[in-house]
Amino acid sequence: MRCEEFSKEMARWLETVWDIETPAGGEVPAELTRHAEACPACMKRLKTAKSLVSARHSLAEPSPFLANAVQERLTGVKPAARKHPVAYTALAAALAVALIAVGLMGGLFRSGSGNTKEMIVRFSLEAPGARQVYVVGDWNDWNAGADPLFDTDSDGVWETEINLEPGKEYRYQFFIDDSEWVADPKAPLKIDDGFGGENSILRI
Q: What is the pTM of this model?
């Protein structure tokens, strides 16, 4: 299997496991595993996809534009209206994040492209053993499922990049496994969050 075929097969697998009526999880096809074991770049992409599959229930629904864009990008055909919009939007949300993360979306999304009013900010947290990690703050209205972090190489360090507007101050925390709120240990500025913890402060 070539890397191009791997990308197509993984997109098909993601679409299958992200069906709203399919139980969480889903076995990785043997041919994908065999290729990934011989290709470090594809193994990294496969690990990212598996991480997203395990956390699928917490992904937010996308806009109609995003749903259509993902489907059209995968098939080359503009999608018609679907009978089950909830299932479709959940699927599209999953595929959108997964495809962006593993590099299958090509030029559909580019961080900060053409927008001089935003800059890319990298967030990272060392959390070995965590199943899910999100960064939650002022920019996403403290939506606990809006901005997931990913441990693509399984080293216990979770990371993501977010476009934020410079010249502002943002308060944020990390949310781990749907239960634990922690301040960023690398942030030099912190403030009491009013609930016995601390908010990290980011100024850009």
A: 0.46
